[in-house]
Specification:
The structure holds two protein chains of two kinds.
Chain A (H helix, E strand, L loop, with lengths): L4 E5 L10 H9 L6 E6 L15 E4 L7 H14 L4 E3 L6 H6 L1 H6 L9 H6 L5 H4 L10 E4 L5 H8 L3 E4 L5 E4 L2 H15 L3 E5 L3 E11 L2 E13 L5 E7 L2 H13 L4 E10 L5 E7 L6 H6 L4 H9 L15 E3 L9 H10 L13
Parallel strand pairs in A: 1-2, 1-4, 2-3
Antiparallel strand pairs in A: 5-8, 6-7, 6-8, 9-10, 9-12, 10-11, 11-14, 12-13
Chain B lengths: L3 H5 L1 E2 L4 E3 L6 E3 L2 H11 L4 H11 L4 H17 L5
Antiparallel strand pairs in B: 1-2, 2-3
Helix pairs in contact in B: 3-4
The chains are: A alpha+beta, B mainly alpha.
C-alpha cells in the first residue's frame, strides 16, 4: 500500500506552541505509516528540525499574502512531493486554505476543513450571537472596533475582565487604564476587532475534538494543571467530565462543525456553572495527549480526508498527564542556510548537500 | 448525603487520590483513606467507627473526632454532599 504524504503546518513549538509538532507526532503512530513534511513561517520554528517526525520542512509566506500566493507555493512543493493531505493547524491560515480547497482537491490534495460560514460561526466575535438560542452559557462579551467604544463596554461588563485578540492572546485587566493599554497592544498585533469579555473565576477544562459534518467522531477532555504567563497549558490531565463531552457534542452539531477543534470551558467556582469561552477551529497544541490516551484524532482526520473508514472512539484513558518541556536542539548551520536560501530543509534532488 | 463523587475516586494505598471527573488530586492520611473506602461501601457511621476500632488501637472518642474531621474535609473538597 502506498504511504500517504501528509503536510502539516504550525511548526512553531515555542512558548505559545502551534499544534503542528504534536499532530506530526500523532501521525507518526498512524497505521497508515505516512510520510510527513512540515509547513513553517520562520526558519527558526523548532518543528523544522525535528527530523524524527518529518522528512522535510518548507517555508511559507505569512497568511496575509493571500490564497493565491499560498496556492503557488503549494504547487511548487507538490511538483517534488506529491502530497495527499494537508492539515493546516493555525487559526490565521484557515481562510486561505478554505479559499483554495477546490483547487487543491483538483490536484489530488485532500483536506478536512469547515466551510467558510461554519468557520465564522464559531469566531470569537460572533459566538454569542451564534449560540444565543441555545442553552450554552457564555461570559458576557462585547466586540469593539475602536478605543472610543471601550469605556461603554467596560462599564457594561465591569472589572476584572479579559481583553482578547481576534486570533490569539488574552489579557486580564483590572481597570480601564489596563484595558486601554491592552486594546492598543492587541489591535497593533492582531488588528481589530478586540474582544472584551467578563472574567469568570473558576477552573478551565478543554476538549480536543474531531467532528464529521457536525457529528462527534472523538473527543478527549483535559483539565489544565499548570499555566504559563501567557495562559497556555504547560501540564494537564485527561478527565472524564461527561457534561463537557455532552455539551460539546451538541454545540458541534449545532454549528455543523467539520474537522478538528478545541472547545474551551470554564467551570465557575462559586456556582459550578459551565461557560464556553471559545471554540478554536483546529486541534490544540496538547492534541498528543488525546493520542496517548487512546484517541489518535489526527490519524482519524487523515482517514476522513482519504475517504477511509474512521476509527470509532468510545472512550479514552482518564488520568493521563502531559508535562511540556523545553529542549535545546542543536542545528547544523547548513540546515539554517537551506531554509533561509532555498525555503526548504532538504532539497530532494541533492539531498546530501544540506546534511 | 451523597457518595456519588466518592465512588469515582481513584484511591492508592499510599493515600494519593485522583478525582477523574475534575482532575483534582489529594493526599489523605491512612484513617481518612479507610473512612472513604468504608463510605464507598455504603457503611453507616456506626459501622465505620466499629471497623476503625477493630483496625486501630485508638479510643472511640478519638475515632469519632477523626470521622467528623474527615467528613468536614470531604465536604470542603466537594467530594461529599
Amino acid at each position: 500500500m502506498k504511504r500517504p504524504l501528509i503536510a502539516v503546518s504550525g511548526m512553531n513549538a515555542v512558548d505559545s506552541p502551534g499544534p503542528g509538532v504534536p499532530v506530526l507526532r500523532s501521525l507518526k503512530e498512524s497505521d497508515l505509516h505516512p510520510r510527513l513534511i512540515g509547513f513553517a513561517y520562520g526558519t527558526l520554528e523548532p518543528g523544522n528540525f525535528m527530523t524524527d517526525f518529518l522528512e522535510n520542512s518548507f517555508l511559507f509566506p505569512y497568511p496575509n499574502a493571500g490564497p493565491g500566493v499560498l496556492l503557488d507555493r503549494i504547487k511548487k512543493i507538490h511538483s517534488d512531493y506529491q502530497m495527499d493531505v494537508i492539515i493546516p493547524t493555525l487559526d490565521s491560515e484557515l481562510d486561505n486554505y478554505i479559499a483554495i480547497e477546490h483547487e487543491l482537491d483538483q490536484m489530488g490534495i485532500k483536506m478536512v476543513l469547515p466551510g467558510k460560514k461554519e468557520l465564522h460561526t464559531r469566531d470569537k466575535t460572533y459566538l454569542s450571537e451564534s449560540l444565543k438560542d441555545t442553552e450554552v452559557l457564555l461570559p458576557e462579551t462585547r466586540t469593539i472596533q475602536d478605543i472610543a467604544s471601550l469605556r461603554q463596554a467596560t462599564d457594561e461588563i465591569g472589572f476584572p475582565l479579559f481583553m482578547k485578540g481576534i486570533f490569539y492572546e488574552a489579557f486580564y485587566a483590572r481597570n480601564y487604564e489596563e484595558a486601554a493599554g491592552y486594546f492598543y497592544s492587541i489591535s497593533a498585533k492582531w488588528g481589530v476587532p478586540v474582544i472584551v469579555q467578563k472574567y469568570i473565576s473558576g477552573e478551565e477544562c478543554n476538549i480536543c475534538a474531531l467532528a464529521n459534518k457536525g457529528e462527534l467522531v472523538g473527543g478527549v477532555v483535559m483539565k489544565k494543571l499548570f499555566l504559563t504567563d501567557k495562559g497556555k497549558a504547560w501540564a494537564g490531565v485527561t478527565i472524564g467530565n461527561e457534561e463537557v463531552k455532552k455539551i460539546s457534542t451538541s454545540i458541534l452539531k449545532f454549528i455543523n462543525w467539520h474537522g478538528g477543534c478545541e472547545l474551551e470551558f470554564i467551570i465557575e467556582s462559586k456556582t459550578g456553572k459551565m461557560y464556553l469561552l471559545e471554540i478554536n477551529p483546529r486541534f490544540p497544541a496538547w492534541v498528543y495527549l488525546a493520542t496517548a490516551s487512546g484517541q489518535n484524532l489526527p490519524d482519524a482526520l487523515v482517514k476522513m480526508a482519504l475517504g477511509k473508514s474512521i476509527p470509532s472512539f468510545s472512550s479514552y484513558e482518564v488520568g493521563k498527564v502531559f508535562v511540556r518541556h523545553s529542549w535545546d536542539e542543536i542545528i547544523p548551520m547548513k540546515q539554517i542556510e537551506a531554509l533561509t536560501v532555498y525555503g526548504q530543509l532538504v532539497d530532494p534532488k541533492k539531498e546530501s548537500s544540506y546534511e | 448525603m451523597s457518595i456519588g463523587s466518592l465512588k469515582n475516586l481513584a484511591l492508592s494505598d499510599n493515600g494519593f487520590v485522583f478525582d477523574p471527573t475534575t482532575g483534582n488530586t489529594f493526599i489523605f492520611n491512612e484513617t481518612a483513606l479507610t473512612i472513604v473506602r468504608c463510605l464507598i461501601q455504603e457503611k453507616s457511621k456506626e459501622e465505620i467507627i466499629r471497623f476503625l476500632l477493630e483496625e486501630y488501637e485508638v479510643g472511640a472518642e478519638e475515632l469519632e473526632r477523626d470521622y467528623s474531621d474527615t467528613m468536614i474535609h470531604l465536604k470542603e473538597l466537594g467530594l461529599y454532599q
